[in-house]
User: Fold this.
Amino acid sequence: MTKPIYLLNGPNLNLLGKRQPEVYGRETLADVQAKCEALATELGLTLRCLQSNWEGQIIDWIHQARDEGAGIVINPGAFTHTSVAILDALNAFDGPVLEVHISNVHKRESFRHHSYVSLRAEGVIAGFGTEGYLLALRRMKTLVAA
Ligand code: CA2
Assistant:
């Protein structure tokens, strides 16, 4: 049995599709996760889709992925710009890490321009809407096969 890819979403992303559609689109997190599951099946990957508003919970899942995960696709939400603790947890994970942002963070406020997670991520996708998760999964397929 191959190990799953952890698809981690951080704070407020449970509100996807429910507020600020002009920034984050109209799909709910459940819609996005269902599309990711369908693509993962097509690619021969298994997924573990998880979302939390709690930094410690995200860190615990990254630790779990050290034993149980083949790779991590993460949208850390606002923790992207603040969390050395999530960076430290990712640095303790040996597999590939891809960072996804639905919006183009570089077109937004300057405090969104810096990412701690980017110091660890093999790649970053920003501004492709929720399609960014699908693009990250395609890239993850290549990385875990290498
Ligand atoms: O663009 C992204 O994916 C972000 O990671 C989203 C974070 C933001 O803090 C980052 O700078 C960029 C915010 C997620 C909030 O999600 C919501 C979704 C719908 C309605 C309200 C918030």
